[in-house]
Amino acid sequence: MTTSANTPTSVPEVRDPLRIRLRETSPPRLDGVWWPQSRDLQAEAADLIDNFPVGEQGRVYRLLYSRPDWDDSVVAGRGVRSVQARRGPVKVGSFPSDDTHLMIVTMATGKRLRLLVVPSSTDPGEAHRQLLAAARDGRMTDGSDDTDWARWDDVPT
Q1: Which is deepest, 12, 27, 52, 53, by most CB within 10 Å?
Q2: Do residues 140 and 147 touch, judged by C-beta distance below 8 A?
Q3: For residues 33 and 103, is the Cβ–Cβ distance under 8 A?
Q4: Which residues of 112-126 are buried (b: 16+ CB within 10 A; e: fewer)?
Q5: pLDDT values of the chain reduced to their tens digit, one per residue, 157 residues
Q6: CB within 8 Å of 14: residues ≥ 6 apart
Q7: CB–CB of 38/89 below 8 Å?
Q8: What is the pTM of this model?
Q9: What pLDDT does 26 receive?
Q10: Letter string b/e over residues 52-69, b meaning 16 or more CB atoms within 10 A of that residue's CB
């Protein structure tokens, strides 16, 4: 899988609604797709937490992110450990060499949801196609699907 471009994107002053599509049935690999509006981990993770569709799983408890997807994923040589959401700080984590383009969302019930992160710089038409395809099929949409899925299943919460 290719690494995300490191071209910084500014955080929009006026935010669009959360651009996310979740699968309704048990997925083969992905639970949904998320298209953030920038590469700013703090702003986008807070938006995801604050606006995540609330259902029977409750609220977002923790996030695990892929570092190459974000411009500010490392602070003082370490991965970011928390983000400030409206309700207060939320624990986050990452794997230093991860390049899966996934955001693992752990819900209050303990359920883990795997979201494919579509780069914020993606053309809107292509991003929409990826949102629909991955949410429908539960697979990576760039043709590469060599992710070590078991590794993500055993991550402690």
Answers
A1: 52
A2: yes
A3: no
A4: bbbbbbbbbeeeeee
A5: 444 444 455 666 778 889 988 877 665 678 889 999 999 999 999 999 999 987 777 899 999 999 999 998 988 888 899 999 999 999 999 977 788 899 999 999 999 999 999 999 999 999 999 888 876 765 554 444 444 434 444 444 4
A6: none
A7: no
A8: 0.76
A9: 60
A10: beeeebeebbbbbbbbbb
Any residues with CB less than 8 A from the CB of 151 and at least 6 apart, and which? none
CA dist 69 → 86, 133, 136 (Å): 23, 20, 23
Q: What is the pLDDT of residue 41?
A: 96
Q: In which residue are the tokens 């809107």 written?
A: 124
In degrees, rounded to 5, the angle at the alpha carbon of residue 73 between the alpha carbons of residues 101 and 50 is 80
36, 117 contact by CB (below 8 A): yes
* 135 φ, ψ (degrees, to nearest 5): -70, -35
- Token readout for 60 is 């977002």
What is the rounded CA–CA span in Å between residue 56 and residue 88?
Answer: 21
- CA 114/CA 13 separation, integer angstroms: 28
